[in-house]
Each structure stands twice: as C-alpha cells, then as structure tokens.
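Take a look at my tokenised protein here and describe the backbone shape.
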Amino acid sequence: MLYNLVWLFFIYSIAGWVLEVLFVALRRHKYMDRGVLNGPLCIIYGVAGVIIAVTMPDIRDNLFFLFLYSALYATVIEWIAGHILEHFTGTRWWDYGHLPFNFDGYVALPVSVVWGLLGVAMVRWINPLLFDLMDLIPRPVGLAIQIVLEVLLVIDAADTVLTLAGVQNRLRQVEEVGNRLSALTLKLGLWLLGRTERRMVKANPKASFARTKKAKPTVFAQGCSFYKIVMLFFIGSFLGDIAETIFCRITAGYWMSRSSVVWGPFSIVWGLALALATLLMYRYKDRSSTFLFVAGTLLGGAYEYLCSVFTEIVFGTVFWDYSAIPFNLAGRVNLLYCFFWGIAAVVWFRVCYPVLSRWIEKIPLRPGKVITWCLIVFMAADVVVSSAALSRYTARAEGVPPQNAVEVYLDEHYDDDRMYAIYPKAVHTEQHSTTG
C-alpha cells in the first residue's frame, strides 16, 4: 500500500504543478513557476491526493459524502499551506478574495467545489487506473525510481525550508566575519539558497525572506505559542479521557478505560483535537457562536474520520464503531457526535480556553519550559510503547509468536488481559471485517 501511495503523492504533486503553471500561463500569457519547491512539484496536491486516497474508499459509493469530505480535507490543507507560506514570506501566494464565499482569501467555495469534484473523480476512476498502470512497472524498478525521487525531494525541501527560515542571511554573516574553515561548502550553500530565493521571489515578487529577531518572551506560553499548544494537548488528552469515561459509565452502565496509551489516562484523539482546533481557529476565536459551531462540526467530523482510518491502517485495530448509531458514515463518524464536536468548539472558545490560557500563562517561564519538555519526552515514550504493545496485541490475535526479546517483553508485560482492560472497545481488523 505504501508503494502505491508514494506513487500517488508524486503523480498528483507533478499534476498539480502542471495545472498551476497552465492556469497562470492562460491567465497572464507567460510562464511562471508557482511551486514552492525547485522541482516541478506542488506538494499540496500530493498530500491532498494521498489523504483522499487513504480515507475515502470506504464511502466511494456515497457520492455526497465522498464529495463533501474530499472538498473539506483539500480545503483545510490549502488553508494551512497558505498561512504557513504567509508566515515565512510575509505575503500571499494566492488570493481568492475576489471569489464569492471566500475565507481569508486562501479558500473559497467555488475552489472547494472543484476540490470535491476532483476527489470524486480520483477515488472512483483515476486512482484505479493509476494502480493498474503501477502494476505494469516492475517492482524493483519502481522502488529504485521512488528512492531517487524521495532523495531529490528531501534535498529540495531542505533547501526550501532553509531559505524560508532566512538561513541565507545568517550564512552571509558567518562568511563576513572571516570563518573560512568551510569556505567552499559555505559558498555552495549560499549559491543554492540564493537561487531558491530568487526563484521564489520571481514567482511571488512581494515575498520577503528577511528574518527579524523576536523579543525574548517574559510570559510563559503567551498567545498561541508552541508551549501553549503543547500544554493544551496534555490538558485536552486528560480531560477528554475523563469525559469519555464518565460518558460511557452513564450510557453503558459500567466503567471502562478510554485511554489511547498504556501509561496514564490520556486520550490522544481529544488532545490533538484541542491543540489543532486552537492552532487553526485561534484567530477566529472571537467570531460568532454559529461560525464556531459549524466549523467545529465539519472539522471535528473530518478529524475523527481521519483518526479512525489512521489507527485502523497503522494498528490493524478498530477503536470505535458507530455502525449502530443512525446517520453514521462507514461506522467512523455519525451526525450526533459531529454536533458534539460543534458544541465542544463553542464551549471551548467561549468558556474554557480563556480560563485555561490565563492559568497556563501564570506558570513561571523557566519551570514552564522544563515541565513542557519533560511532558513531551514522556508522551513520546508512551506513544512508542503503546504502539509496540498494540502491534503485538494484533499479532497475537493472528497467532504470530514473538520474534525477539522486545516482543517477549511486550507479551509478558502487556498481555491480552491488560490490553483488553486498556482498550476494551478495540476490535482487530480481521475480526471486525467478519462481524461488521
């Protein structure tokens, strides 16, 4: 599957670049490279194509939701990419402000409709054709081509990221103070970064790559900073687990674990949802409650659907199934819970976020940073151990014996009884496919 997805990423990235160049050529009657990378790739199209290809097959026969979710995923990706480029270059790389029903000028309803139609065409007709063509390429040849493309992409992306980060200016400063230890490498780096910057400025003349020094913060996690988002992730993970546990006790009549990890009561889905919602919607937190509800309903439903597909593919396990609830979509999301996401968005920005934000900012600056990084290291280890334990849980269900000392350790410390206690609603994919 990964082999095919890599091909789709490059095919759609190249196709997107061609479409962008043709559009500009027809509109301005001249060639202009609108890609951010040096190579002929528009990775927004590649990323959107892969996400749609992975998530949409379950609903390929439901044209309405296939269209809606394709449009939604692609629109969110385009919106995020636009703001990232604006942050690093100080200008807009595209502007839909002249189109009706636009949002921030980076997305607009007519463009989203096009994204939705392309998603339908991709899932129903284009991808099956591409998969058949991929099968015609000998696998060793295909893998070799992919490796070459991936290496070139990594080099290209590193060059572009360094340019966006303003590294070129700092390298010039190093050269000016007389550091000649790596003169040849330094000059080559300056040439590459300068070439990339000139190409990007040519594509967008208003772009600026000068990086200004930021004043040192005096308040911990002020505004929508990295530390604020991380702290909100942990708060959301903990409160989400508690809320789900209580909800299950009320509705099912018994207590059950709703944790995503083996160490501690943390629901990663809720933590990520809270962090991402704050990051994406922070600048709109003062908009109307209706806006927040609609945005929360759509984004929350799309997020939960994506999480369901991701966990099933990666861990071979279904962690929730809404097939018994009316108005569900492939058992992954349902209309009622989508409304819950919308209500949660309103409550979060109207009630919870202002209070939690003030509490977080009262933490002393230096201890706050130390605590945050300790939590990050802990959660990284927790996720690694949980992923390994879940993989062994699935392998044991398939009758696969342990192959090394690590798997023996996992079988001893995270046996079926313990894993069932942590993930009581988890259903292995093969069992789910035979009973669902």
Remarks:
- The two ends are 23 Å apart (CA to CA).
